[in-house]
Amino acid sequence: MKWWRQVAFGAALMVMLTVGVGAGPALAQEQPDEPGEGAFTFAVIGDIPYGDAQVARFPAVVDQINADPAVQLVDHLGDIKSGSSVCSDAYFAMVRTQFDRFVDPLVYTPGDNEWTDCHRPNNGGFSPLERLDAVRQVFFPSPGRTLGQHAVQVVTQAERGFVENVSYSRAGIGFAALHVVGSNNGLVPWTGNSAPTPEQQAEVAARTAATLALIDQTFAKAEKDKQRAVVLLTQADMFDVTVPDPQFADYSAFQPIVREIAAKAAAFGGPVYLFNGDSHVYNADAPLAPGSRWLSFYDVQTPAGNLDRITVDGSTEVDEYLRVTVHPQGPQVLNIVQVPFT
Questions:
Q1: Which of 161, 185, 311, 324 is least surrounded by CB atoms within 10 angstroms?
Q2: How far is CA 163 from CA 1, 195, 226, 295, in A?
Q3: Is 329 exposed, middle or buried (0-12, 13-18, 19+ CB in 10 A)?
Q4: DSSP output for 39-90
């Protein structure tokens, strides 16, 4: 049985119980965020659909993931369009229509292509902040609930103005979707400017503060609840192995986030997994392990050898999704399978 069906059954039972005692309004706070014991499997995609061919193919991608009997939740790591296409309301609506076709709950974290980079002339010359507002209106209309036909509750930072930052727990694992994007987390100057504007800097500062708070809260809950592992989900690749000579100026906005992840992961001790998109080529590594060049790059004082990073395949050549299974017991917490699109 899909875990959301178990949760729905449990919620229905609670409704019957609470009706008898007149406590119906408290139901929302009482619904469980755990799917129960046993393995839990989720799919991860990102940087899709890119271009006309993928837009035409995307319904088949949704159909294939829907047909995967193991998958119980879907994570989309952002970039729902290419970096050279128009950031139009019509395009957003089209993608939302496809997101609504996912049978399982869908957790989506925005990418830079759908708002940060929309200042580019070939993107339509939009105000990025106006496009960010549009993304929130289209894809996050119900704070604290996922997308998908069987939407479920998640914890949201809506009270801070970041409805897209969410966390949830499944099968003894803590998850957090963090709004961290490419283009130096949104600090790349907009068209016509040689430096970030004051409003641009203010947005990045506020979003970074919210992200750091969510990281802290996710690890604190993992410690309190004795969770086996933590999974973080971002669009940005903060450790891009496809760039032969990365310059700190192009990554500077990621530094506080990387440092916080390193510190919290090292203190946690258990397995930590970071899933990201952005660089388009599947990769698995340990960017904060002792000896990694990224430690000195970000001036990280505390290595975190327990952090595994996985980059999802994406862009115009994407031909797979990741099927990730949480094992309730044993030394291997996650098993990752690359599933080709048919």
A1: 161
A2: 30, 28, 27, 31
A3: exposed
A4: -EEEEEE-S---HHHHHHHHHHHHHHHHH-TT--EEEE-S--S-TTS---HH
Say how far apart CA 168 and CA 160 lie, in whole Å.
Answer: 17
Residue 314's region, left for phi above 0, alpha for psi from -120 to 50, else beta, is beta
Nearest to 72 by CA among 223, 211, 226, 175: 175
Instruction: Compute the chain's Rg from CA coordinates.
Output: 20
Query: Taking the model in full, what pTM does it have?
Result: 0.90
Residues constituting the chain? 342
**Type of residue found at 310:** I
DSSP code for 107: E
Please determine, for residue 250, whether its predicted confidence score (pLDDT) is greater than 50.
yes
Give the C-alpha distances (Å, rounded to integers) separating 18 from 25, 31, 227. Answer: 9, 12, 29
In whole angstroms, give the CA distance from residue 12 to residue 335: 32
The domains of the chain, with CATH numbers, are: 1-32 (no CATH), 37-340 (3.60.21.10)
Q: What are phi and psi of 50, to 5 degrees?
A: -115, 115
In three-state secondary structure terms, 211 is helix
**Terminal alpha carbon distance of the chain:** 25
| Residue 231 confidence (pLDDT) above 50 | yes
Q: Which residue has the tokens 């193919």?
A: 57
* Residues whose CB falls within 8 Å of the CB of residue 38, separated by 6 or more in sequence, listed in order: 171, 328
DSSP class of residue 141 equals S
- DSSP, res 160: G
Question: What pLDDT score was predicted for residue 318?
Answer: 87
pLDDT grade for 317, boundaries at 50, 70 and 90 = confident
Residue 297 neighbours by CB distance under 10 Å: 18
